Amino acid sequence: MAKSYEIEHPIKAFGWAARDTSGVLSPFNFSRRATGENDVQFKVLYCGICHSDLHMLKNEWDNSKYPIVPGHEIVGVVTEVGSKVEKVKVGDNVGVGVLVGSCRKCDSCTNDLEQYCPSHIGTYSTTYSDGTTTYGGYSDLMVANEHFVLRWPENLPMEAAPLLCAGITTYSPLRYFGIDKPGLNIGVVGLGGLGHMAVKFAKAFGCNVTVISTSFNKKDEAIKHLGANSFLISHDQEQMQGATSTLDGIIDTVSAEHPIAPLLNILKPHGKLVMVGAPPKPLELPVFPLLMGRKIIGGSIIGGMKETQEMLDFAAKHKITPEVEVVSMDYVNIAMERLSKSDVKYRFVLDVGKTLKVD
């Protein structure tokens, strides 16, 4: 018989968990493994709420393991380190993102691309190498292998936790596809949690940024607040026609069904359309515009550990932080409800350190 969540590991832990597809979160006593020689234990202070948390809570991707303690944008302070840990020490600020494990041997792992390892281990609702379930950052403490722990720059506010998912998800494709060069014209489709980070990073790289949205009332926000250079309404045919062949690259952050053809038309020849949103159903792919301009459609998820550290250091240097609404732990179910209606600008962050009350 399996041990109960509270005693399967030696360290007592407390968080908020969903027990079923209702997705409703409530207090949950469980346990963490002892800090091994290569492990870092830290007190969680802040944890971002990612849209994928909502999908997982309701098992919308058919891979959820209940009970679920979500959270993969986790920032805190180190309380204990294993004897072989070299990267951080007690008292350091650290972060853990989407990954807590990978095989460390395959081509992806040996090339610092752990996110593409066939046996990568997610921070929550997956099975760890010891056979137990992983639990995320809606909790009082974390234990993780130092390889998957990031050094959190001192001048970066801890509330910027969504950099660990939304940040790296947009930074990585800009870098990998070479659409991070000064003077390039870059489009960003959608101005939500991912989109606003794509705008900030592209601007910091020196690009000219065009925001492409279905909502006209986001124009002021895009240009005046986030510094975008121009704004297009995606369903305004005249505007989109006027922008034909003007963009070197596009980061598409939209997770709903939407037409691809208009986006391909506003790319220059050799332009790249990179998908980082995850629509639930296949999109229609018109091939003719790809042929006529030798254009590319690609995809990308997060980044490896080396690149994620690079992103954090870049964000600290350029003072790039996500726009967040910090909320208390007992507000989490209301936050999820608001998130499902897109009623947040642009990311919720849980103040775990001050508001998680241990049962």
Automatic annotation (TrEMBL):
<dbReference type="GO" id="GO:0009809">
    <property type="term" value="P:lignin biosynthetic process"/>
</dbReference>
<dbReference type="InterPro" id="IPR002328">
    <property type="entry name" value="ADH_Zn_CS"/>
</dbReference>
<dbReference type="InterPro" id="IPR036291">
    <property type="entry name" value="NAD(P)-bd_dom_sf"/>
</dbReference>
<dbReference type="InterPro" id="IPR013154">
    <property type="entry name" value="ADH-like_N"/>
</dbReference>
<dbReference type="GO" id="GO:0016491">
    <property type="term" value="F:oxidoreductase activity"/>
</dbReference>
<dbReference type="InterPro" id="IPR013149">
    <property type="entry name" value="ADH-like_C"/>
</dbReference>
<feature type="domain" description="Enoyl reductase (ER)">
    <location>
        <begin position="23"/>
        <end position="350"/>
    </location>
</feature>
<dbReference type="InterPro" id="IPR020843">
    <property type="entry name" value="ER"/>
</dbReference>
<dbReference type="InterPro" id="IPR047109">
    <property type="entry name" value="CAD-like"/>
</dbReference>
<keyword id="KW-0862">Zinc</keyword>
<protein>
    <recommendedName>
        <fullName>Enoyl reductase (ER) domain-containing protein</fullName>
    </recommendedName>
</protein>
<dbReference type="GO" id="GO:0046872">
    <property type="term" value="F:metal ion binding"/>
</dbReference>
<comment type="similarity">
    <text>Belongs to the zinc-containing alcohol dehydrogenase family.</text>
</comment>
<keyword id="KW-0560">Oxidoreductase</keyword>
<dbReference type="Pfam" id="PF00107">
    <property type="entry name" value="ADH_zinc_N"/>
</dbReference>
<dbReference type="Pfam" id="PF08240">
    <property type="entry name" value="ADH_N"/>
</dbReference>
<keyword id="KW-0479">Metal-binding</keyword>
<dbReference type="InterPro" id="IPR011032">
    <property type="entry name" value="GroES-like_sf"/>
</dbReference>
